[in-house]
Specification:
single chain, alpha+beta, Triger factor/SurA peptide-binding fold, Chitinase A, domain 3, four-stranded antiparallel β-sheet, 16 helices, flat
């Protein structure tokens, strides 16, 4: 627990952490701002503040910080309104690609899907649903910014040094970092595991068709725990908000109709269409996850143990093994190089293993991820960079990124003041 210091960098941190997720308006929800044809709700602002508090384990927020968050949200809505005026569009495939990247980043940040759901207060499926809608708006604003600043905001070496001299006492410390290499073998679902999940889903469907209550069966059997609490209800959704197989089945149903088991990357879904209004539907589902057979894990662990022995006996180098065997496409092409990873981004199992290791040592097979999605990895520790105060000599690139963001924020604020001349903005606070 720590006290929050209100300065430039706490504001930057908020902007970087906030995902843009917002709730739909609830009865009695107060409108706190109107921007063009859009509104900002009191619940949106409250949620963003609560999210920041949960992520940073704080219990009190200075009113000045709330104002900064409000202003950032307002600015983004102004940019979206301007993007709509300029007829800026985002292709569905662009949104899907960015959504996958965002969810992967969340998983890297929090380690497991369960932790993500705990922090955001909703299931990963619901996060995907809500985030996809808001991402379209954010990407419009970003595209508008790129149009205004086609070369991006650059800073000179002189500006970096002036920035550092002015703000060095407010800069956050560089976190402890581990320089790592990895060999990753992804835990894939076998045909036997798919068959077991399909059989269980069919048994549940048979019970429902014989009179069992869908809502109660969802609460009892669905592994989408957040929606299960509401009887499996996922709320209202439009096309493009679900994975393809789920969406195709959901939109093909008639109100009250229940689907046969549908396979997706998450497991088998039994889908019930509650309501349908043109391109919008309200659906519930029961998600049966793929069971994890121990034999599949043991084969992977055995393979990695043998590979580690070969590396230690100099039959193959770690880098050669990573290029040949690793299933992490981002690092395999770089000889397994992960780069510097801060402590808070480390999987808990990996952090425990690294604490007592020395440079150039290799871990045994470590399970990385949650019980639904995980891999087994060998990790090589290259070096340790302890927590320290940022300096130009050791952390020039980090300081430069802060300087660029600070300059960009100022330039965008000036531009927004110009945009506001032609956008209706009413503050109701």
């Amino acid at each position: 627990m720590y006290k929050l210091r209100i300065n430039l960098f706490s504001v930057i941190l908020i902007i970087l952490l906030f995902s843009g997720i917002s709730y739909s308006q609830k009865e009695g929800d107060r409108i706190i701002a109107i921007v063009g044809n859009d509104v900002m709700l009191e619940s949106d602002l409250q949620y963003q503040i609560q999210l920041y508090m949960r992520q940073n384990q704080i219990t009190q927020v200075n009113p000045a910080l709330i104002q900064q968050v409000f202003q950032q949200m307002l600015n983004e809505k102004i940019l979206v309104a301007k993007a709509d005026q300029d007829s800026i569009e985002i292709k569905p495939e662009e949104i899907s690609k960015e959504l996958d990247y965002r969810l992967k980043s969340l998983l890297e940040q929090f380690g497991t899907e369960e932790r993500i759901e705990q922090v955001y207060g909703m299931s990963v499926g619901k996060i995907r649903l809500v985030l996809k809608e808001d991402l379209q708006k954010k990407m419009k604003a970003d595209k508008l910014k790129r149009k205004k600043f086609p070369g991006g905001i650059k800073v000179s070496d002189k500006e970096v040094r002036e920035f550092y001299n002015q703000y060095k006492d407010s800069l956050p410390k560089a976190r402890e970092e581990y320089e790592l290499y990895n060999i990753s073998v992804i835990r894939k679902v076998t045909d036997d595991e798919k068959n077991l999940a399909r059989e269980k889903a069919q048994l549940i469907l048979d019970s429902i068709l014989k009179g069992a209550d869908f809502s109660e069966m969802a609460k009892r059997h669905s592994i989408d725990f957040q929606s299960a609490k509401d009887g499996g209800n996922l709320g209202n959704a439009r096309r493009g908000m679900f994975v393809t197989a789920f969406e195709d089945m959901a939109f093909s149903l008639k109100p009250g109709e229940i689907s046969t088991p549908v396979e997706t990357e998450f497991g088998y879904h039994i889908i019930k269409l509650n309501e349908k209004n043109n391109d919008q539907i309200n659906v519930s589902h029961i998600l049966i996850g793929f069971p994890k057979l121990e034999s599949n894990d043991l084969q992977t662990i055995s393979f990695l143990k043998e590979l580690r022995r070969d590396i230690e006996e100099n039959k193959i180098t770690f880098e050669e093994a990573a290029k040949k065997y690793s299933q992490d496409p981002e690092t395999a092409s770089k000889d397994g190089y992960l780069g510097f990873v801060t402590v808070e981004r480390l999987d808990s199992n990996l952090y425990v293993a690294l604490k007592d290791m020395k440079p150039d040592e290799i871990t045994g097979p470590i399970k990385i991820g949650d019980d639904r999605n995980y891999s087994y990895e060998l990790i090589k520790l290259k070096s340790i960079n302890p927590e320290h105060k940022l300096t130009l000599e050791t952390d020039y690139e980090k300081v430069k990124r802060f300087a660029e963001y600070f300059k960009e924020t100022r330039e965008v604020e000036k531009w927004i003041e110009e945009i506001k001349e032609n956008i209706f903005v009413e503050i109701k606070l």
